[in-house]
Amino acid sequence: MDDCIIIGGGPAGLTAAIYLSRYHLKIRLFDCGSSRAALIPCTHNHAGYPQGISGLDLLAAMRAQAEKYGTVREAAKVTSLRSIEGGFAARIGEREVRARSVLLATGVINHRPPMPDALHDAALANGQIRYCPVCDGYEVTDKRVAVYGTGEHGAREALFIRSFTRDVTLIAPDRHDLPPEQLAQLTAADIALVDGPARDWAIDGEQLALSTAAGHLAFDSLYPALGSHIRSELAVEAGARADASGCLEVDDHQRTSLPALFAAGDVAKGLDQISHAMGEAGVAATTIRNMLNAEAPLWR
Ligand SMILES: Cc1cc2nc3c(=O)[nH]c(=O)nc-3n(C[C@H](O)[C@H](O)[C@H](O)COP(=O)(O)OP(=O)(O)OC[C@H]3O[C@@H](n4cnc5c(N)ncnc54)[C@H](O)[C@@H]3O)c2cc1C
Fold first, then answer.
1. Cβ of 132 less than 6 Å from ligand 1
2. Where is the FAD/NAD(P)-binding domain (predicted)?
């Protein structure tokens, strides 16, 4: 039986792999190749890279670092996870792999606006679509920005972006549905409210253009605020607790409610950021090491 199975090869899973491999533990990492970090054209808020670094380059460097210390990494999807005597069994295709502990680092998937995939990806690559104002609000300083969403989430995102630019428009996917308190906050912040549905998405020179109930509009950047799918199903099926949104509940050592099952990164509740994912993974990995050592000393 292995010491730990890591499910997910984004910043959280790879950080844990580096730590656990350097603790001389026998681990396996499975990754189905859809890290959110791979979508980052160039991050400018990740400390240590004053010129910025692309998500793909960061992931490649982390993979090289994990492999240098002996991490066994497989490009494969884990399709089920169950508790067994002394640990867990993970299913990968026809195979079952067993380990004394599991770290789930499967992340989330952002819901996308209703636009053609090719257009979405082109707009994402050049900063006309952005998903994370915490990450890149600085880059839209004094630009013309739209947030695509409504309700509490849409209003929160629009108000957050207001500290980067005075030109913010909140576009509803259909019609706005805003509680009076948020409507008052948006009005006080001078945020324009536009009803959808949004159609005719197009890249128009430096801007992203779309038709709305208020006519044809164009923005330097648009932030979808449509929520995410939290990839916590494997842990929930195995018996771990998640909150209403699907985020796994963890304690301050990244332990889920199921013994020996840990979670780190976006799949656990917290700030969806690379640095946070890495920090949680370091805590999880060290707790896993200490737990295994308490069961049987890891002396060489
Ligand atoms: C466009 C964009 C820009 C961003 N910019 C920044 C930024 O500038 N700075 C910043 O700090 N953050 C940024 N973020 C957020 C950052 O990407 C995430 O917080 C970070 O990637 C979370 O890491 P993670 O390891 O938790 O999840 P992820 O990076 O999403 O990795 C999860 C991994 O788990 C794998 N996986 C899922 N299910 C399975 C399964 N069943 N079996 C095997 N593998 C599985 C996936 O393939 C994936 O590789 C950005 C996000 C986006 C979308």
1. yes
2. 3-281
pLDDT digits (tens, 9 = 90+) for 208-219: 999 999 999 999
Q: Which fold has domain 112-224?
A: FAD/NAD(P)-binding domain (3.50.50)
**Residues carrying CATH 3.50.50.60, the chain:** 2-109+228-295, 112-224
φ, ψ for residue 37, nearest 5 deg: -60, -25
135: nearest Cα among 38, 268, 224, 43: 43
| Long-range CB contacts for residues 62-70, cutoff 8 Å, separation at least 24 | 62/11, 62/14, 62/15, 62/18, 63/9, 63/14, 65/14, 65/18, 66/14, 66/17, 66/18, 66/21, 66/29, 69/18, 69/21, 69/22, 70/21
Question: What are the pLDDT digits (tens) for 55-97?
Answer: 999 999 999 999 999 999 999 999 999 999 999 999 999 999 9
- Confirm or reject: Cβ of 280 under 6 Å from ligand 1: no
Domain 2-109+228-295 fold: FAD/NAD(P)-binding domain (3.50.50)
